[in-house]
Specification:
The complex is a heterodimer of chains A (269) and B (305). With 269 residues, chain A is an all-alpha fold. Chain A is built from 14 helices and no strands. Chain A has 2 domains: 51 residues, no CATH class; 210 residues, MetI-like fold, CATH 1.10.3720.10. The longest helix of chain A has 32 residues. Chain B is mainly alpha-helical. Chain B has one domain: MetI-like fold (Orthogonal Bundle). Chain B contains 13 helices and no strands. In chain B, helix 4 packs across helix 7 and helix 12 runs antiparallel to helix 13. Chain B is flat, with a radius of gyration of 27 Å. The chains are: A mainly alpha (269), B mainly alpha (305).
C-alpha cells in the first residue's frame, strides 16, 4: 500500500518535471528544425542550424553579446568594490551615525532602482549618459543587497585574525585585503552569480535608457528583433531566444550546485 | 614620570584615533553613499516633489498641489491596473508557493531521478523573463500555437488567449508561476533539510501517517519559510512587467496591465512624467507597506543562518 503511494508520487513528480521542461524543449525543437516543422512534431524532421545563422545575420547579435558582457562585468566589478568598502566600514568601524546611514542604505532593498525608472531616467539624462552602457549600470552599482551580505560576512570574522594582521603591521586597508576579502569568498561567489544572472536578464531599465545597437544588451536586442511588426519567422526567433539565454543556461547546467546555493544564500540574506 | 606622561597622552591619542576611524569609515562609504543618494534617495524625493507639479510643456512647471492625485483617483485605468496587480499577486503568490512546497517535498525524498527533477523545476529561474515571454507567446498564439494545437487534437476550437480580456490574465499568471515556483522550491528544500530526522522516526514509531506528519509537524515548522517566500513573491508581483512588453503591451484594453507597466507607459509613451511620478509614489507606498510588514512580522521571528 505504502509502496503504491510512493510510486504514484514518483509518476506525478516526473509528469510535473516534464511539463516544466516542455516550454524549453519546445523552444529547442523549433530552433533546431526547419521552419515548416515549427509546429509539426515529426521525429524524422531534419536538424538544422540555419535558424541560428539567419538570426545572427539579421540582427547585430555579436554586438549585443559584447554589450551584455560589458554591462555585466561593469556592474559586477563596481558592485564588488563599492560593497566591499562600505561593508567593511559598517562591520568594523564605529562612527557617528552608523545606524542611520545603514538604514539609509537598506532603503534600496525596499525600493529598488527597477521602480524608480521615471526619475532615474531624468538623472541619467542630466548626466548626459542616455543610450550608453554606464547608464544601464549606474543605478545598480551601489548594491544595498551586496553591502548587507558582505557586512554580515565581515562581522563574523574573528577578531584574533584582525589583531594578528595588525601586529604584523598591516594598515586597515591591508587588513581588509588580506583578511576580510579572502574570508568572504563564498559570499562573493554567491553575490556574483546572483548579480550576473540578474543583469544578464534585466530588461525594462535597459529598454528605457538605450536606443541604439551600440548600447543595447541582448535582452533588449531580442525584444526588438522578435517584435511582431518585424515579421521574422518563429523558428528564427526561438533561435535568437536560445542565443540570448544560452551562456547563462550553460553556466547553470555546469555549476548547478553553486547556482542553487548562491540563489538561496542571497535570497535568505 | 613615564607612567604619568602616558596617562596624559592617552586621551589625546584615543581622540585622534577615533577621529581617524571616523574619517576612514566615511571615506570607505563615500562611493556607495554618493551612488545611493543619486539613484535611490534623490529619485524617491524627486518623485514625490514632481508629483505635486503639472507638466511644463509650454513653459515652467507649476505647482498644482494634490491635483495629480485627484486625477489619479478619477483615472479608471489606474484602478484597473491596481485591481489587475491585486489579482496577479493573489493568484501567483499562493499558486507558486503551493507548487514550490510540493516540489520541495518530492525532491527532498529518495525519489527516482531526484537531481533531474530538481534541475527541471529550477531551470526556469535562471532564464531571462524576456526569453520566457517569447516562448510562451508562441504557446498562446491563436490557431497554430502549441496550446491551440493540443486543444484541437482533443476536438476543441482555437482561441485568442492573449487577445481575450477574459483569459489574458490567467495566461500570464500560469507563465509567472512556471517561472517562479522552482526558485521558491529551494528555500523550502533548505528548510526541510533542517527538520531533524528523529522527529520523523518518532512519528512513525507512534504510528503517524505521512500526511498527518506533514500537516502537524512539517507544515508548522515551515511557517517562517512560507512567510518569507510570500513576502518576496508579493514584492515580485509588483516588479515583474517585462513579459507585458513582449506579450500584450498591457492589452487588450489594459486587461493585463500592471502598475509598473502603466507607469512605464505613462512616462515613456505618453511622456506625462508628472503623472508617472504620482503613480510611482503609489507604488513606492505599496512597497514600503510590504517592507514594513515584513520587518515587523518576519525579521523578528526568523533567525537567519
Amino acid at each position: 500500500m505504502r509502496h503504491d503511494g510512493s510510486r504514484i508520487e514518483t509518476v506525478a513528480a516526473w509528469t510535473l518535471a516534464l511539463l516544466w521542461l516542455l516550454p524549453l524543449a519546445y523552444c529547442f525543437w523549433s530552433a533546431f528544425h526547419p521552419a515548416e516543422y515549427a509546429t509539426r512534431f515529426d521525429l524524422t524532421a531534419p536538424l538544422t542550424l540555419e535558424n541560428f545563422a539567419r538570426a545572427w545575420r539579421q540582427a547585430p547579435f555579436a554586438r549585443y553579446y559584447l554589450n551584455t558582457v560589458l554591462l555585466v562585468t561593469m556592474v559586477l566589478a563596481g558592485q564588488l568594490v563599492i560593497a566591499t568598502l562600505a561593508a567593511y566600514a559598517f562591520a568594523r568601524f564605529r562612527f557617528v551615525g552608523r545606524d542611520i546611514v545603514f538604514g539609509l542604505v537598506l532603503v534600496q532593498l525596499m525600493i529598488m532602482p527597477d521602480v524608480l525608472i521615471v526619475e532615474n531616467y531624468r538623472v541619467v539624462s542630466g548626466l548626459n549618459l542616455l543610450d550608453t552602457i554606464p547608464a544601464i549600470a549606474l543605478p545598480y552599482m551601489a548594491s544595498a543587497f551586496g553591502i548587507f551580505l558582505l557586512r554580515q560576512t565581515f562581522k563574523s570574522v574573528p577578531n584574533e585574525l584582525v589583531e594578528a594582521a595588525r601586529v604584523e603591521g598591516a594598515s586597515s586597508f591591508g587588513v581588509l585585503w588580506r583578511v576580510f576579502v579572502p574570508l568572504g569568498k563564498t559570499t562573493y561567489i554567491a553575490f556574483g552569480l546572483v548579480s550576473v544572472s540578474y543583469h544578464w536578464n534585466n530588461f525594462l531599465w535597459p529598454l528605457i535608457v538605450t536606443n541604439s545597437v551600440e548600447s543595447r544588451p541582448l535582452t533588449v536586442g531580442l525584444a526588438v528583433f522578435g517584435a511582431p511588426e518585424t515579421g521574422v519567422d518563429w523558428s528564427v526567433i526561438t533561435a535568437a531566444t536560445i542565443m540570448t539565454m544560452a551562456p547563462l543556461l550553460l553556466a547553470f547546467l555546469l555549476f548547478q550546485r553553486q547556482f542553487v546555493q548562491s540563489f538561496m544564500r542571497a535570497g535568505i540574506r | 614620570m613615564v607612567a604619568a606622561a602616558m596617562i596624559s597622552a592617552r586621551p589625546k591619542t584615543a581622540k585622534r584615533l577615533r577621529w581617524a576611524a571616523n574619517a576612514n569609515a566615511w571615506l570607505l562609504l563615500l562611493p556607495a553613499l554618493v551612488l545611493l543618494a543619486t539613484f535611490t534617495h534623490y529619485p524617491i524625493l524627486a518623485t514625490l516633489y514632481h508629483s505635486f507639479f503639472s507638466l511644463g510643456r509650454s513653459g515652467p512647471a507649476t505647482f498644482v498641489g494634490i491635483e495629480n492625485y485627484q486625477a489619479m483617483l478619477e483615472d479608471d485605468v489606474f484602478w484597473q491596473v491596481l485591481r489587475n496587480n491585486l489579482v496577479f499577486a493573489l493568484a501567483t503568490v499562493p499558486a507558486s508557493i503551493a507548487l514550490a512546497l510540493l516540489m520541495a517535498v518530492w525532491v527532498d525524498r529518495k525519489i527516482t531521478g531526484r537531481s533531474f527533477l530538481r534541475l527541471a523545476f529550477f531551470t526556469p529561474t535562471v532564464l531571462p523573463m524576456i526569453a520566457v515571454a517569447n516562448i510562451w507567446l508562441f504557446f498562446y498564439t491563436p490557431d497554430y500555437g502549441l496550446l491551440d494545437q493540443i486543444l484541437r487534437f482533443f476536438g476543441f476550437s482555437g482561441h485568442n488567449w492573449l487577445g481575450d480580456p477574459g483569459t489574458v490574465m490567467t495566461c500570464l499568471i500560469v507563465m509567472v508561476v512556471w517561472k517562479e515556483a522552482g526558485f521558491f522550491m529551494i528555500f523550502y528544500l533548505a528548510a526541510l533539510q533542517t527538520i531533524p530526522p528523529e522527529l520523523k522516526e518518532a512519528a512513525s514509531v507512534e504510528g503517524a501517517g505521512r500526511w498527518y506528519f506533514f500537516r502537524r509537524v512539517t507544515l508548522p515548522l515551515l511557517m517562517p519559510t512560507t512567510l518569507f517566500i510570500s513576502i518576496n513573491a508579493l514584492i515580485n508581483s509588483f516588479k515583474l512587467v517585462d513579459q507585458l512588453v513582449i506579450m500584450t503591451k498591457g492589452g487588450p484594453n489594459n486587461a493585463s496591465s500592471l502598475l509598473l507597466y502603466y507607469i512605464y507607459e505613462v512616462a515613456f509613451n505618453f511622456w506625462d512624467t508628472t503623472y508617472a511620478a504620482t503613480l510611482t509614489v503609489t507604488l513606492i507606498a505599496i512597497l514600503a507597506v510590504i517592507a514594513i510588514t515584513k520587518f515587523v512580522y518576519l525579521d523578528r521571528r526568523i533567525h537567519y543562518q
